[in-house]
Prior knowledge:
The complex is a heterodimer. Chain A has helices at residues 14-24, 37-42, 78-82, 85-90, 92-98, 104-109, 112-118, 124-131, 149-152, 218-225, 230-235, 251-268; strands at residues 7-10, 28-31, 50-53, 63-66, 69-73, 135-140, 143-148, 153-155, 158-159, 166-173, 180-184, 194-199, 204-208, 215-216. By secondary structure, chain A is of the alpha+beta class. Chain A has 3 domains: 7-53, Uridine Diphospho-n-acetylenolpyruvylglucosamine Reductase, domain 2, CATH 3.30.43.10; 58-173, Uridine Diphospho-n-acetylenolpyruvylglucosamine Reductase, domain 3; 180-268, Enolase-like, domain 1 (2-Layer Sandwich), CATH 3.30.390.50. Chain A is globular. In chain B, a hairpin with a 2-residue loop joins strand 3 (49-52) and strand 4 (55-58). Chain B folds into 2 domains: 2-77, Roll (Ubiquitin-like (UB roll)); 87-153, [2Fe-2S]-binding domain (DNA polymerase, domain 1, Orthogonal Bundle). In chain B, 31% of the residues lie in helices and 16% in strands. Classes of the chains: A alpha+beta, B alpha+beta. The A-B interface holds A 1-8, 31, 34-35, 38-39, 41-43, 51, 53, 55, 79, 83, 102-106, 108-109, 188-189 and B 2, 18-20, 22, 41-44, 46, 49, 52, 55-58, 61-63, 65-66, 110, 113-114, 117, 128-133.
Amino acid sequence: xxxxxxxxxxxxxxxHAVALLTEHGDEAKLLAGGHSLIPMMxxxxxTPTVLVDVGRLDDLRYxxxxxxxxxIGALTRHSELEHSELLAQSCPMMASVxxxxxxxxxxxxxxxxxxxxxxxxxxxxxxxVLALGGTIVARGPGGDREIAATDFFTGYFESALADDExxxxxxxxxxxxxxxxQKFNRRAQDWAIVGVAVANAGAGVSLVNMGxxxxxxxxxxxxxxxxxxxxxxxxxxxxxxxxxxxxxADADYRRHLARVFTQRALNAAGVA
Amino acid sequence: MxxxxxxxxxxxxxxxxxxxTLLVHALRDDLRLTGTNIGCDSxxxxxxxxxxxxxxxxxxxxxxVQADGAxxxxxxxxxxxxxxxxxxxxxxxxxxxxxCGYCTPGMVMAAISLVEEYPDLDDQGxxxxxxxxxxxxxxxxxxxxxxxxxxxxxxxxxxx
Lengths: 272, 160
């Protein structure tokens, strides 16, 4: 299981990475922590001919708070989110969800920007950013643009990022009080079979592995906003969704799990 | 080919590697440090765990070029030069924390990193922290006991 050959380029800056992406087009992929990309390359599910290593851009590893917004550099590793005192105080949901990703060795390498760019519907942190109402800052040849998390995930492992753009920062509102994350799986360290993220006492609710992208559970949010009980709001969690069927769970079981874990998450987040 | 420099177990090593060379292959095939095992080859089992700049990493899921300039510690590098075992190795020895031994190098490296990262480990913390390391003999109980013995002794920077 050796990956196909590729040319290796070390990016000296985000601008340099964008220039390399512009030069090599869709033949090139960014390499950050590599914990999604390298397994895909080993299985030859991905065969980029150029890898642009952005993993050394330490100036994109930071967590800052300013005027009620938490700004997180794209190369910040999951373990840094997990142990951040700033997040523990200002946005504990991000720290707690980061601590549930994979295992410690995975968290030492995986990055927030990487997991968002990968856009795996089964990943934990995209759901947290969605529920919190976050924003993704992408840098391209024309400069930076902000993409709302709700507009970012466009398809199965597909995002709104252009071939010549990279994520440089992720912003989430500070707070998020009344939050909870439920992750259901059968094997330790595995991806969620179904996950539910609740932020701001049910104002933000998102679902993991319930469709081709991380999903905002708009029907649940609307029910909570109209004063429905957690049980009634959770009852609509799977409405209209087409979750995958795989060896872990068929679609109907996933719909059932979404309803059960949405109610638990809402209850734990303080919604009666 | 890319020229890289790794400080492996305290010794600077210069290597010529293909970009696609995984760190575990550079360690095993180029440097002949075969203590690091390959298990699942897909970042699930942890048999290939080494320390990169002091933190546990699955060396099957990192290209050697990504480690250029880093400190890499393998199981061959944790004992003292006079042969005195690392406290974690000693604890594994005393608690009989191995059966067939295949997972042991990765388990020891992951455990060294774990007690460094989480100062107040309890039984559940050790089990959760080692969930990325599989022992197919299922000898987890004694492994957990060994790690708890080190976590509670303060010998790995833990104050508890």
